[in-house]
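Lab notebook: predicted structure, single chain.

Context: the supervisor wants predicted structures on file for every construct in the current expression panel, including those that have not yet been purified. This is the next one on the list. No modifications to the sequence; it matches the entry in the shared construct table.
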Amino acid sequence: MSTHRKFSFKLLSKAANIKLTEADIKPQLVYNAQKAKSFWRPPQVSRRIQNDLRKACIVQDIKPESIGLEPLRPAKSLRYKPNKLERHERMQADRQAMIQRNLEKMPQTIQAWKEDKLKELAKQKTSMPF
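Prediction complete. Output recorded below exactly as produced.
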Protein backbone atom coordinates (compact mmCIF):
# COMPACT_ATOMS: atom_id res chain seq x y z
CA MET A 1 0.00 0.00 0.00
CA SER A 2 3.00 2.21 -0.37
CA THR A 3 2.12 3.69 -3.74
CA HIS A 4 -0.92 5.60 -4.87
CA ARG A 5 -2.08 4.30 -8.21
CA LYS A 6 -4.90 5.21 -10.53
CA PHE A 7 -6.76 1.99 -11.24
CA SER A 8 -8.59 1.43 -14.48
CA PHE A 9 -12.36 1.34 -14.57
CA LYS A 10 -12.14 -2.33 -15.52
CA LEU A 11 -10.20 -3.23 -12.37
CA LEU A 12 -12.45 -1.12 -10.16
CA SER A 13 -15.58 -2.77 -11.52
CA LYS A 14 -13.94 -6.18 -11.14
CA ALA A 15 -13.14 -5.44 -7.50
CA ALA A 16 -16.77 -4.61 -6.76
CA ASN A 17 -18.24 -7.76 -8.31
CA ILE A 18 -15.66 -10.49 -7.75
CA LYS A 19 -16.04 -13.26 -5.17
CA LEU A 20 -12.83 -15.18 -4.62
CA THR A 21 -12.58 -18.63 -3.08
CA GLU A 22 -9.72 -20.05 -1.04
CA ALA A 23 -8.51 -22.00 -4.09
CA ASP A 24 -8.24 -18.74 -6.04
CA ILE A 25 -6.03 -17.11 -3.42
CA LYS A 26 -3.93 -19.84 -1.79
CA PRO A 27 -1.74 -22.53 -3.32
CA GLN A 28 -3.22 -26.01 -2.93
CA LEU A 29 -1.62 -29.37 -2.28
CA VAL A 30 -3.07 -31.77 -4.85
CA TYR A 31 -2.66 -35.55 -4.71
CA ASN A 32 -2.38 -37.47 -7.99
CA ALA A 33 -3.69 -40.99 -7.32
CA GLN A 34 -2.37 -42.44 -10.60
CA LYS A 35 1.22 -41.44 -9.93
CA ALA A 36 0.85 -41.66 -6.13
CA LYS A 37 2.48 -38.24 -5.81
CA SER A 38 1.35 -34.86 -4.61
CA PHE A 39 2.21 -31.41 -5.92
CA TRP A 40 1.43 -27.79 -5.20
CA ARG A 41 -0.96 -26.05 -7.55
CA PRO A 42 -0.35 -22.28 -7.67
CA PRO A 43 -3.21 -19.89 -6.86
CA GLN A 44 -5.45 -18.78 -9.71
CA VAL A 45 -4.97 -15.12 -8.78
CA SER A 46 -1.35 -14.04 -8.35
CA ARG A 47 -0.14 -12.09 -5.31
CA ARG A 48 0.34 -8.97 -7.41
CA ILE A 49 -3.24 -9.03 -8.68
CA GLN A 50 -4.50 -9.82 -5.17
CA ASN A 51 -2.74 -6.71 -3.88
CA ASP A 52 -4.07 -4.64 -6.77
CA LEU A 53 -7.59 -5.85 -5.95
CA ARG A 54 -7.02 -5.05 -2.28
CA LYS A 55 -5.91 -1.50 -3.14
CA ALA A 56 -8.87 -1.04 -5.51
CA CYS A 57 -11.23 -2.17 -2.74
CA ILE A 58 -9.72 0.35 -0.36
CA VAL A 59 -10.13 3.11 -2.96
CA GLN A 60 -13.83 2.19 -3.30
CA ASP A 61 -14.34 1.83 0.49
CA ILE A 62 -15.01 -1.91 0.25
CA LYS A 63 -13.56 -4.28 2.80
CA PRO A 64 -11.13 -6.62 1.03
CA GLU A 65 -12.30 -9.52 3.21
CA SER A 66 -15.80 -9.16 1.74
CA ILE A 67 -14.62 -10.28 -1.71
CA GLY A 68 -12.67 -13.22 -0.33
CA LEU A 69 -9.20 -11.74 0.14
CA GLU A 70 -7.30 -12.67 3.27
CA PRO A 71 -6.92 -9.98 5.95
CA LEU A 72 -3.52 -8.34 6.14
CA ARG A 73 -1.16 -9.99 8.58
CA PRO A 74 0.41 -7.77 11.22
CA ALA A 75 4.03 -6.91 10.57
CA LYS A 76 6.52 -9.05 12.45
CA SER A 77 8.68 -7.32 14.99
CA LEU A 78 12.35 -7.10 14.25
CA ARG A 79 14.59 -9.48 16.15
CA TYR A 80 17.25 -7.79 18.23
CA LYS A 81 20.65 -9.28 17.60
CA PRO A 82 23.56 -7.65 19.41
CA ASN A 83 26.82 -6.94 17.64
CA LYS A 84 29.38 -9.73 17.73
CA LEU A 85 32.16 -7.47 19.06
CA GLU A 86 35.78 -8.52 19.18
CA ARG A 87 36.96 -11.48 21.23
CA HIS A 88 38.64 -9.43 23.96
CA GLU A 89 35.46 -7.35 24.35
CA ARG A 90 33.23 -10.43 24.55
CA MET A 91 35.49 -12.11 27.12
CA GLN A 92 36.02 -9.01 29.27
CA ALA A 93 33.41 -9.85 31.94
CA ASP A 94 34.69 -13.43 32.29
CA ARG A 95 38.26 -12.20 32.46
CA GLN A 96 37.43 -9.66 35.19
CA ALA A 97 35.61 -12.35 37.22
CA MET A 98 38.60 -14.71 36.90
CA ILE A 99 41.00 -11.96 38.03
CA GLN A 100 38.78 -11.22 41.05
CA ARG A 101 38.70 -14.92 42.03
CA ASN A 102 42.48 -15.16 41.71
CA LEU A 103 42.95 -12.06 43.89
CA GLU A 104 40.75 -13.60 46.58
CA LYS A 105 42.85 -16.79 46.48
CA MET A 106 46.17 -14.90 46.50
CA PRO A 107 46.94 -15.13 50.28
CA GLN A 108 46.51 -18.94 50.19
CA THR A 109 48.65 -19.14 47.03
CA ILE A 110 51.44 -17.09 48.64
CA GLN A 111 51.30 -19.19 51.82
CA ALA A 112 51.52 -22.43 49.81
CA TRP A 113 54.44 -21.06 47.79
CA LYS A 114 56.33 -20.11 50.98
CA GLU A 115 55.75 -23.56 52.49
CA ASP A 116 57.01 -25.26 49.30
CA LYS A 117 60.10 -23.04 49.33
CA LEU A 118 60.84 -23.96 52.96
CA LYS A 119 60.46 -27.67 52.16
CA GLU A 120 62.89 -27.35 49.26
CA LEU A 121 65.42 -25.60 51.50
CA ALA A 122 65.03 -28.31 54.11
CA LYS A 123 65.72 -30.97 51.48
CA GLN A 124 68.87 -29.21 50.34
CA LYS A 125 70.37 -29.16 53.86
CA THR A 126 72.55 -32.11 54.60
CA SER A 127 72.34 -34.10 57.78
CA MET A 128 76.07 -33.76 58.24
CA PRO A 129 77.10 -31.20 60.87
CA PHE A 130 79.94 -29.75 58.79
